[in-house]
Amino acid sequence: MLNNKNIFQNKYNNEYILNLLDIFVSGALLFITPIILQHQLIVGVIVNALLIRCALKHSNKKLLIIALVPNLGALAGGILLGANTQFLALMIPFIWAGNFAIAIVSKKLFLQKKINYFLAVGSGAILKTIILFGSAFALLQFALVPVAFLTVFGINQLLTAIGGAIIAYISIFGFKTKL
Known about the structure:
Layout lengths: L3 H33 L3 H18 L2 H18 L7 H28 L4 H25 L7 H4 L2 H19 L6
Helix pairs in contact: 1-2, 1-3, 2-3, 2-4, 2-7, 3-4, 4-5, 5-7
């Protein structure tokens, strides 16, 4: 016979398992997407959507781990940036920072400060773009990355973050929820 304590325990265990499963599936998708898909804009939209979705659903500790995964897949696949993939290794710490920035800023502004979803995520997207473009620009000054990185880590980041924000919104809230 089940009592209230057992019902609570089972509910907690189910939520915990579903939470872990969501993190695992999201992490796997974040890793394999850059390996399977070869178009930077498509990969970027998917990655940003997953990062934003995870940010709104999970703790900052789990989010930190999730933010590290996507570029490891891109580096492992070696195909995302073609001949420039070798330079991606120099950008890894900045990509981690950018991924964490969009996630944590979006989460803090939307969930804690109750700012409009698209303003919150847009602020995170702009910060991510500034981090990535600024680092690519700095590395370019030392001739460590090709000039193409200014586009890849500039306007492309902003576009993919906005696309990801739209997909994350639809996946979380659906079409019926008001902005």
